[in-house]
Amino acid sequence: MGGFFGTIKKKSCVADLFYGVDYNSHMGTKRAGMVTQDNGNFIRAIHNIENSYFRSKFEDDLPSFSGCSGIGVISDTDAQPIIISSHLGKFAIVTVAKINNIPELEKELLAKGNHFCEHSNGITNQSELVSMLIIEGKNFVEGIENVYNRIKGSCSILLLTEDGIIAARDKYGRTPVLLGKGKNCYAVSSETCSFPNLGYETEYNLGPGEIVHITADTFTQLRKPGEKMQICSFLWVYYGYPVCEYEGKNVDTMRFDCGLEMGKTDDIEADFVSGIPDSGVGMSLGYAVGKQIPYQRGIVKYTPTWPRSFTPPNQEMRELVAKMKLIPNKSLLKDKKVVFCDDSIVRGTQLRDNVNDLYRYGAKEVHMRISCPPLIYPCKFLNFTASKSDLELITRRTIQKLEGNHDKDLSEYATTNSPKYCRMVDSICKELNITTLKFNPIETLVKSIGLPKECICTHCFDGSSYE
């Protein structure tokens, strides 16, 4: 998906920028970039981080950076930041975006005499395209509104200018943008976990479509937030770091509550509950309280070399990586009935391999409990999976098997406890060789997040959304 960070201070911002961007590393695994501005001079570095970590890639670049303001990004899409000279002035841009109508927009912009320089494997750079839409405006606000009106998908933006940072949250607020205040300084980030250790306190949560201008002393609203919000529910389910908050709602509290609700009503017998690291841990702790059974680490993550998510583009390598980073605890599993909590099931290949390992290490029964509903619809708004086809989703393959058509009766399959829903879940359970399988209903997901249903994007579960 991606995450960004920016800061502006009365003194050098380089250290804060370096560590602030690093605190967004769990949001992406492909590319990263930083840019600072020093008296009109923009200094930039971009690196591939697919086989390394942000800090190790950028440490050697730090002496070349200078200035009191800067922005950076962890990106699963483009090489960023992009630096632009235009009638609006010189600026750098980073985005967290998924733009579904790039070919149409590119064609329109080329017909107007624009050109594109930043291509990777023949694909237009989204951030460069966004910058072209921005400079069609008479000012930055008009330009960003042009982005909101023209793209299909989502886009949150940071602009580094010669007189500050401009932050713009996606039109429907699908991704978060938060401001942190420090002593004589401000920061802006996708993730609040980047604030505390750098001396910032969360000061303000940008609303959907809101635009602000940030200096070291203050921030000024340039565009009021819109009335409709559709923040991605999967941020709480999977992507968000446990200590982060979106719309004032903590990630780990939500996961705990999802597990608590399921544990209270689950009627199976089990010796203990364990979380699939990392995002299943919070749910399993809640489940243990609700079910009143012990929490134990029946499977652990090998953190010395797998401290964060890593998703290679090749499916065979993804399956190998998933296997390598999780180690079952044979001493705890032998002859035990165990509940395992996980965030979601996307393709099912990783979970199937994990389940087989659990049995191989002596587990008597393996009960899977999933914090969210089944993923029925591919995401149109964020890049939270690498799926290229509907049939990469295990739900769609199952519906194809049951119906002969993976698009048939989707609303029925998305309705918790409907006959077709139960048939689908039972089929997935058998395919993955699980003793029992249960998903949290969408009502529990929404209740655990703590926001009104209409403010949360649940498209991947029930097909609903604002376009």
UniProtKB/TrEMBL annotation:
PROSITE patterns: GATASE_TYPE_2. Keywords: Glutamine amidotransferase, Glycosyltransferase, Purine biosynthesis, Transferase. Pathway: Purine metabolism; IMP biosynthesis via de novo pathway; N(1)-(5-phospho-D-ribosyl)glycinamide from 5-phospho-alpha-D-ribose 1-diphosphate: step 1/2. Its EC number is 2.4.2.14. In the C-terminal section; belongs to the purine/pyrimidine phosphoribosyltransferase family. Residues 1-217 form the Glutamine amidotransferase type-2 domain. It catalyses: 5-phospho-beta-D-ribosylamine + L-glutamate + diphosphate = 5-phospho-alpha-D-ribose 1-diphosphate + L-glutamine + H2O. It comes from the Bacteria. This is Amidophosphoribosyltransferase. Gene3D superfamilies: 3.40.50.2020, Glutamine Phosphoribosylpyrophosphate, subunit 1, domain 1. It is an enzyme of class 2 (transferase).
